[in-house]
Design brief:
CATH architecture of the largest domain: Roll
Largest sheet: 2 strands, antiparallel
CATH class of the largest domain: Alpha Beta
Number of strands: 2
Shape: flat
CATH topology of the largest domain: Membrane-bound Lytic Murein Transglycosylase D, Chain A
Strand content: 5-15%
Radius of gyration: 39 Å
């Protein structure tokens, strides 16, 4: 009886091994089938690209081998050229209008800027009066055409300097944050620099 149980146990164990091996084999077959399908799809796409390139080469050969009949332009060529010139002229006019509007807006901004007030004569003037009381580390920046304090702060943040527009204004009390004058130098504070 023990022998029969042993044989049955071995038969069950062998059957489970065979089943596990069949499952693993089926998974490998499925994986290989997927890879083969991917390769077939890639080959089909390559075939399409090759066909397109062959057609393009054929068209180029035909163009090269076709003799030039004349250097004159057809009516359609002239019509197309006239349309493109009108389109360019319209874009130029739109750009001109936009520039005039921006200049007008800038003029309004400058007109709104309050006049600077003078300090009373009793206040002693010193270069140190406009700088913060604590020594600061930072960078000197020369203002360029089109700069704003927000853009300058963002540029320095992109470089890893943690600075805000408000900190730049506080570090440069003499500047008007709404009207930056090109070529003037401002101080960009950097609290992290030692």
């Amino acid at each position: 009886m023990k022998k029969i149980s042993l044989w049955v146990l071995m038969l069950v164990f062998t059957a489970s091994l065979v089943q596990a091996q069949e499952t693993a084999t089926q998974q490998q077959i499925d994986k290989l089938s997927g890879q083969i399908q991917d390769l077939l799809d890639a080959q089909a796409q390559q075939g399409k690209r090759i066909d397109a390139l062959e057609k393009e080469i054929s068209d180029l050969r035909d163009k090269v081998n076709t003799p030039v009949v004349s250097d004159s332009a057809s009516r359609q060529d002239l019509k197309d050229l006239a349309e493109k010139v009108q389109e360019i002229d319209q874009k130029r006019q739109d750009d001109r209008d936009l520039i005039l509007k921006k200049i007008e807006d800038l003029g309004k901004t400058i007109a709104v800027v309050p006049p600077t007030t003078h300090k009373p004569a009793s206040t002693p003037k010193s270069d140190d009066a406009d700088t913060p009381a604590t020594p600061q580390n930072g960078y000197e920046y020369t203002i360029k055409q089109g700069d704003t304090l927000g853009l300058i702060a963002k540029a320095y943040r992109d470089k890893g300097v943690k600075v805000t527009k408000a900190q730049i204004i506080a570090a440069n009390p003499k500047i008007n944050p709404n009207v930056l004058i090109p070529e003037h130098k401002i101080f960009i504070p950097d609290a992290a620099a030692k």
